[in-house]
Predict the structure.
Amino acid sequence: MGIYLTDKSISNWILKTIDEGADGAMRMKTILFIFAGLLMPVLGGAAFAANPDKCEPAGDFLILRDQQYALCANATCLTMNQVAYCECDLLRGNSISLPFDFGDGENVCTVNQDGRGNGYRVSTYSVPKRSEFLDGDYALYTCPGELNKGKYGGVAAASGSYAQCDGGLCFTSTRGRNFPGFEKLGKKELMCSCPITTNCENSDASPGGHQIGSPYDSVTGCDPNACLKCDAARLTDAQCQTSNPASFIGVQENVPVGSSAGTPAMLSCLLLDGAVPQLNSCFCSCDEVNEDGSCAEWSVHDESPLVIDCAL
């Protein structure tokens, strides 16, 4: 049960104590020490003034300089009530995000800075070290769109949904704790809440498909099973025609974090000023479809190392 102290209740308590005479005066000193102890953590948890030097414009994006942030690029998620809850990494350094401007000069950078001491951080993007060629144990997997579905003889585009975590709020209270649907988190892991991008979105918005992070082996290469995530949380045409398609996703595990194809490369170039490391890269090809349009058979093609040309 929580204890809530209003200005009026505090005043009445102090006045009553003073009226009780000498014994009350002694208690008054004790009370003042108690309130000093109570107020210090409250003030310490107040919003910090954002440092504008840590918020650097980069085209249509913002670079967050030397800040703690959540990275969800290789995360998997549990969907519940139309929200994806994703197990992400808590890092410190430079990252990039859409600005998400609101209020009086507030944006993703000021919100993330205010999260210091207030129990939250924001999910932004940086190049995941675990996806770097050749020693990384993750890769960037491309789930094809209409534009590139036939690259390796494929016959259909991916039709899955994914969590879009840029700007998602993350809860530092979950570090090292248990969370429904996940094993106990590590001390440098935390849960983030992310909106869901469904396959009902206009395919013209992402003709090259979408990209997700998934395991990669330095010896055997790409994981064929990772391509199954390209159709994760797939919605039917009938479901897409309803007013709220995401409501049909329900509770599902192993939904990937993703983004429109090419977005990770663009953000990496802006963040690192063109000096992007080579990455592990895999391409998923749908070689056979079911009657409902979902992919019946996936093949995976190792395209490592991915060399990102920021001059393009």
Q: What stands out?
A: The chain has a mean pLDDT of 86. The first helix runs from residue 7 to 18.
